[in-house]
Design brief:
4 strands; Choline dehydrogenase; alpha+beta; elongated; 4-stranded antiparallel β-sheet; 27% strand; 2 domains; Alpha-Beta Plaits
Length: 162
């Protein structure tokens, strides 16, 4: 059985109405150009977030403090010394450090819970290559110093304004 044929103008209106309905506008108001109540009450257009600030990278490093082979955990004093002597000289403009509780599965399959630190540093995108070298140096030295498997890393693009 053949489907009924819809004329081209009617098909266009139906398609437009379906799209408008799918994207949240009431079909009756959207199809006829009538502003919705929310659109009429909306404040004047504000600049998009992309227009504020400058393009940056926000890098988050996750430092665990648990050690292997029965060695005691990395102390707060030891971590603070590493922060002062290794991290701060590479990011003297600023950083954020938060203490937390972390959990991860090691290479032997054991789940480890430990006190951890999340370090956040932000830098302009144009400095990403140079900062990457600093970040990888920090990660490798931390692992080597305390014989650890890894320091977690997450990089996020951001628009930043100070």
């Amino acid at each position: 059985m053949r489907s009924p044929r819809i004329s081209t103008p009617a098909a266009g209106l139906l398609a437009a109405a379906a799209l408008l309905f799918a994207f949240g506008g009431p079909v009756s108001q959207a199809a006829f150009g009538t502003p919705t109540a929310s659109a009429a009450a909306a404040p004047a257009a504000q600049p998009a977030a992309e227009q504020l600030g400058s393009p940056y990278v926000s890098t988050h490093l996750y430092f665990g403090t648990g050690r292997h082979n029965g060695n005691p955990p990395i102390t707060e004093a030891e971590f603070n010394k590493f922060l002062a002597e290794v991290i701060t000289p590479r990011f003297p403009s600023g950083l954020t450090l938060q203490e937390g509780r972390g959990q991860w599965r090691d290479k032997e399959g054991d789940i480890n819970s430990e006190r951890s630190y999340e370090l956040t540093v932000m830098y302009p995108v144009r400095e990403a290559a140079a900062r990457n070298a600093d970040i990888e140096y920090i990660r490798k030295l931390y692992c080597k110093t305390w014989e650890l498997e890894s320091v977690g890393r997450a990089d996020v693009r951001a628009q930043v304004d100070f």
